[in-house]
Inverse folding.
């Protein structure tokens, strides 16, 4: 059977043929293999809803099957067995969560076991705001798009018995429990329990609400439930013990761990059904309102067109010229990935759930969520501050809302739960950086207070465990924590540096001094013997014996979280000069830094060392190494293919690294308003700066020597030579033209 | 610690001391042992809500523990370990169902496992509309009362940490799944899945909604969830696998099979908290509206007073004088038990769920539910027609609503599900009986059509399986069914007799003849060899070998449901003369009937033979046997003690037997408007007949010879001798005085 492309879609194609827009360069399959954990499903800019193909359940997908291993994505490119489309998903995270509200179109009888109704698929297409495939088993063409809070699908059924299944049992999350009700022949509403991110904090599991609307009234509808299996004498009387039951025409709530609902049709001829699923983290009423406000009376094609339009507006904030088509694809896909998380938590009416206890609160701006800050404090928020400052401002405000609600700034916030994943105290770093870059329309006094709180509260401090030792000794010891005493000390150092910088700007001189001093306490962990950082025991002695390699490949170790001494020693971006001194000056520093790469210790796939290449800019005469390394790493790890992200995208952090690196600038010191410079990947990059925050200036980065591998010979800013390989944020956003050749 | 009785309560006591009212004679403990399956919790007249102590969970209650055996009641008098108070319950049924929405007051820490928080109890009091005990473990006094749709409790806590637990996991039903949300510090709302009555029809499981309000705002609240236990590799990462989690302050929905919510207080001094739980089978909004309309701004004491007032009005429709205090207690408790089921299904606003699919419908009168018709067609509805004709009229209308919604009259309807429990086609018998008694304010044409449908539709007939054989052969065979071919034939005969009687009244002469003929087809199953009924095989031969005793004690057998040939042969109340003829005349008939009792085959605890004693009235000169047997059976089986009902009350059928029998009248032929007469148990019985249906007449039954055991010497109606031992309904309701001496 052949499906015709819709007129609208042809239109998009024809436009793009004539002149490709940024949206046309995005390939959402990038990152869907190699544990990138992105998914190819449509999503609006920072959308709450996301219609992802779900192909990680069932033995057909082994070894990348969700229950057989740690797997944190609803979609893996090399898998083949699809069991539906999940409507809330996380992109580029390292823990399984969400991946629920699964829909699946089928034909023939109602089958509710996903292992039975699952299908292989072909003709897979993914573009910005659009996904499509054909389910081989049923010959159904599936298309999907999305608004901010609504997943929209179009199912092209062949003639005959057709079904749309809504499975609330299956999910990527390990949390269970749902409630579903068929409201009418065109509407289903329900609640699905999610939570326990990283198999942790189950007590903060929470509900996601949805309302599904169908463009065609079902000829039949119903719900199903697979109850738990009874044991004991009663099971003898239960002929139905543990068996799935189908409840045809049922119109009240059904509750359980393994339930679902279905709409059923009998078509005389091939027929399309459009389905819209509105999402809310507040209530069913809000899910319905979200659906109606965003999609009422709108067709799939119209919604798709608008989704792409919106994406194109955002992506066009940076225009690139020259460079290969592949580079453009890598670039815009990376930029696309930085615009997924943090995403929208609040409903159209401003309602959102309070942290943890989830009372309904109201926000004026966007309340963002999914703050994977240990990752994103390093570059993603810096990219936002530069290109999307309004969003960055709202993100900071969201962090302050979280502080208001929970008493603490976020660390790894997810849909109004603090998952407390990873280490450090990253929110303040982002806030200071944002403020120092001139984005100041938030309550900085409150922010400062919040930062001081986590930097000072010794007991019951969820952000800085071990703070007592850190303050008194200058570092965490192998007794303070059994995982990452050194790396956590470094994280606290960077956070303290950020406080110091903000204190200075705010005229808090004594805080500036105090935190400035605290910020370099990592120096006490520098061991001359190895010329690397090394954990100290409670009594001040070095951890002995000591192998600085231990900790590679995420191996758990006493000194470092997700890394080893090589991958962490240089992670003192605020005190590179101090580290140089410890190592004996610029030359030994550069040598040791080069060792990281030469000894194969550099890990592009995890955050601690991703700024390393840029550190060569601190050593006069060695800047060419930064340029070469960045260029090589881009070529090696960022590709136009499903495995085109070095590993977990970490909610856009890896992608932000690529975006910055390809533009030739990188925020090498997270709490300082400056960038390191390398050679860009494009002949011309135009950043359309924000009207409100940057007076709508246009920043152009030019390079005539992209093609050759020669080191940078000259940097001109507005035509004037620029001697350094760094540029301040202020100078950057006020420059018209930066020429790097 | 001593609790003071409230002033109101003392008031009730003082009034009753002066002159006992009918309510004061009710002992709700009657029937709570010996598998009577009534419960001592408060309930309004035909109430939807009922606050029953729940003492059937936990090994402490073995052998009468709910999961260790077939147990169909939330409360057993001899049990001692209480795990809460369930708010929707069935009374006098033979299958476990409902017994959910359990609340439990505790002190100290929050413990959510009922096996741990359960307690023994003392000072147990049960009266009409009131239950009270003291929980030994916590020294909490619990009091409970109810309106039609709201359970109302008063917990008297000692000083200190106190909790009210709302457990939605535990329940008598085998159905699981719930949804709960703490709305505020004074309100919790939720849904609990129930259904699968008699371990059957799980596909019709359905939700019950509730809203709980607390008179004091909780100092802390929360929810809990015990998830199912994961297996496989993921369980290694789940430190919380299968463990209960407490979610303090959580304010959104929590869904699961084993969940609950709690309100927590810290009292400076002993404090009372009142809790109201509104119930609905339609929606949360309706549960809230029920709660508000019935109890807003009303206190426990006021509600209790009104509950007792309402009960007294109903019970006072029959006033008895003379007789022992014990007899009065037995009588009024029995009458009380006939006013529990059928009970109210609709909300205060008239909403109720449609059969099976549960769309919301609206009713003008009361939509009754819990129609255990195989039981109640024999006498309970006859009692309603006589004493509470308005209710009986609404019950018939409810049956017609069920027909409208499902296409079939009810058989064993329970909260808008047809459980299809037991056999036969009993609704029509009741409808005909009601109509023939002059209660005619329902759509009799529709009713007649409905009766003809179940009597005529050969295929997919849920009421009369095996109808084809029944019509062509006159009986079901051992091939037609493997359980009860004879008894089901008898049930169909009675139902056909009812159609014939109604047809006659409506002038449908040919139907009258046809069904009159069909109604006596049981005669083909009469075997002269045994002088009893006997199953026939498909080829017409007798089932051989044949032991007419088999089937006693509910043993499953080919010929009879829940009985044997002895207990069923005389169950042809509409054709006693025909049966006499088969047996060789009145004398052999009386002898064979006497054999039933002499051979110990009579079973007072099950329906088929409960009219047997009255059949002696059909044999001139043997009427004394009826009188003696009824009197002896009342004395033996109906007592003022927990085991004071012969067995399962069968939603009031056993109680209705006692009520009629103690008044000296019994509706011996269910579809005929007449009664058999025996000697009453009271000197004077006054029935205040209904204004609307019986012009408010007062019927007095008198007897001067209650005390002696002599046979009846004379019956006078309005002073004139009455020669028969039967009386027509018409004559009865038009009589002023019936003297039986």
């Amino acid at each position: 059977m052949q499906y015709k492309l819709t007129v609208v879609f042809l239109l998009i194609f024809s436009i793009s043929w004539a002149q490709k827009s940024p949206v046309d360069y995005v390939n959402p399959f990038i990152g869907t293999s190699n544990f990138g954990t992105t998914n190819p499903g449509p999503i609006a800019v920072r959308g709450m809803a996301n219609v992802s193909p779900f192909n990680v359940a069932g033995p057909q997908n082994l070894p990348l099957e969700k229950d057989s291993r740690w797997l944190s994505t609803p979609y893996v490119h090399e898998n083949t067995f699809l069991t539906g489309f999940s409507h809330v998903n996380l992109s580029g995270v390292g823990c399984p969560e969400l991946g629920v509200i699964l829909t699946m179109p089928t034909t023939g009888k109602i089958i509710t076991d996903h292992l039975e109704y699952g299908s292989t698929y072909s003709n897979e297409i993914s573009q910005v705001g659009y996904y499509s495939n054909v389910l081989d088993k049923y010959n159904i063409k599936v298309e999907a798009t999305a608004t901010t809070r609504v997943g929209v699908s179009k199912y092209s059924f062949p003639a005959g018995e057709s079904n749309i299944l809504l499975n609330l049992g299956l999910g990527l999350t390990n949390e269970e429990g749902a409630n579903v009700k068929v409201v009418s022949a065109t509407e289903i509403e329900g609640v699905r329990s999610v939570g326990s991110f990283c198999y942790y904090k189950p007590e903060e599991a929470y509900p996601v609400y949805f309302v599904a609307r169908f463009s065609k009234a079902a000829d039949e509808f119903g719900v199903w439930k697979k109850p738990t299996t009874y044991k004991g004498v009663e099971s003898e009387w239960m002929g139905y013990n543990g068996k799935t039951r189908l409840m045809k025409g049922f119109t009240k709530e059904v509750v359980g761990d393994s339930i679902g609902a279905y709409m059923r049709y009998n078509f005389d001829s091939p027929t399309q059904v459009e389905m819209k699923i509105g999402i809310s983290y507040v209530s069913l009423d809000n899910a319905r309102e979200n659906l109606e406000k965003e999609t009422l009376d709108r067709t799939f094609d119209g919604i798709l067109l608008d989704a792409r339009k919106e994406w194109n507006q955002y992506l066009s904030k940076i225009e690139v010229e020259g460079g290969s088509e592949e580079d453009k694809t890598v670039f815009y896909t990376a930029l696309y990935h930085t615009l997924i998380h943090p995403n929208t938590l609040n409903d159209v009416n401003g309602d959102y759930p309070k942290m943890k206890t989830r009372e309904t609160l109201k926000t004026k701006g966007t309340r963002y969520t999914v703050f994977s800050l240990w990752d994103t404090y390093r570059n993603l928020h810096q990219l936002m501050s530069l290109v999307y400052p309004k969003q960055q401002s709202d993100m900071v405000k969201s962090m302050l809302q979280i502080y208001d609600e929970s008493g603490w700034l976020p660390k790894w916030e997810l849909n109004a739960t603090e998952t407390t994943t990873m280490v450090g105290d990253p929110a303040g770093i982002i806030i200071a950086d944002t403020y120092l870059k001139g984005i100041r329309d938030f309550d900085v006094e409150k922010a400062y207070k919040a930062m001081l709180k986590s930097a000072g509260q010794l007991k019951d401090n969820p952000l800085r465990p071990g703070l007592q030792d850190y303050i008194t000794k200058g570092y965490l010891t192998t007794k303070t924590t059994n995982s990452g005493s050194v790396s956590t000390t470094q994280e606290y150092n960077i956070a303290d540096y950020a406080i110091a910088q903000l204190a200075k700007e705010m005229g808090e001189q004594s805080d500036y001094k105090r935190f400035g001093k605290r910020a370099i306490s990592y120096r006490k962990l520098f061991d001359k013997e190895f010329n690397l950082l090394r954990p100290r025991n409670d009594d001040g002695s070095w951890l002995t014996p000591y192998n600085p390699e231990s900790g590679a490949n995420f191996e758990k170790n006493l000194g470092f979280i997700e890394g080893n001494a090589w991958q962490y020693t240089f992670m003192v971006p605020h005190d590179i000069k101090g580290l140089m001194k410890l190592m004996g000056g610029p030359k030994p520093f550069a040598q040791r830094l080069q060792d990281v790469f030469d000894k194969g210790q550099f890990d592009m796939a995890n955050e601690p060392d991703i700024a390393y290449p840029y550190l060569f800019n601190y050593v006069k005469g060695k800047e060419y190494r930064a340029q070469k390394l960045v260029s090589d790493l881009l070529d090696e790890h960022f590709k136009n293919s499903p495995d085109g992200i070095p590993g977990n995208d970490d909610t856009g952090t890896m992608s932000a690294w690529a975006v910055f690196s390809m533009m030739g600038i990188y925020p090498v010191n997270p709490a300082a308003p400056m960038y390191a410079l390398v050679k860009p990947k494009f002949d011309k990059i135009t950043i359309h700066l924000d009207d409100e925050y940057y007076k709508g200036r246009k920043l152009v980065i030019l390079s005539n020597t992209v093609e050759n591998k020669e080191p940078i010979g000259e940097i001109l800013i507005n035509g004037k030579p620029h001697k350094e390989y760094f540029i301040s944020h202020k100078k950057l956003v006020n420059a018209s033209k930066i020429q790097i050749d």
Chain A touches chain B through 56 residues (CB under 8 Å). Residues 681 and 706 of chain A are 6 Å apart (CA to CA). Residues 1-17 of chain A have pLDDT under 50 and may be disordered.
